[in-house]
Write the structure tokens for this entry.
Amino acid sequence: MDKQVFVINGSGGVGKDTVCEMAARFWKVQNVSSITPILDVARAAGWDGCKTPQARRFLSQLKEACTAFNDLPFRYCIKQYERFLRNDLALLFVHIREPEEIDRFRAAVGAGCKAVLVRRPALEGARGALGNRSDDGVAQYVYDGVFDNDGTLDELPEKVRLFFTGLISQ
């Protein structure tokens, strides 16, 4: 199998990391997020690690500021992609929320990069908007696939395998 890059998106708490963990049962996976370098900056600014709506808004705004200042999130993702190309892993998952940043990353990586939205309809309907552009704008993109994380944990590994096998073969 050739290497495959997926941008993975979805609002907070829908199970993006869990989906990536399940994929790692079947493929060698690297899972990275554009927010990772921003979390270090946020901690230095006093963020305690909790993802309350107020903290999510802060992280979203901080990411926008770092993107405008020196493009830190994008540079981090490209560096991780370059590392992925040099190793023996099969799948790279890159968590990016903002539609324009998804497009930038996909353009830099090339046509084989696919975008996936992870949804958990029961959670999203009950919770409503989280009050920040990064979380609330995830549906404003045309994805190559949409994964509904609506089953049990026991069903999830096989559902993830079938979903990504289908996308890889396209």
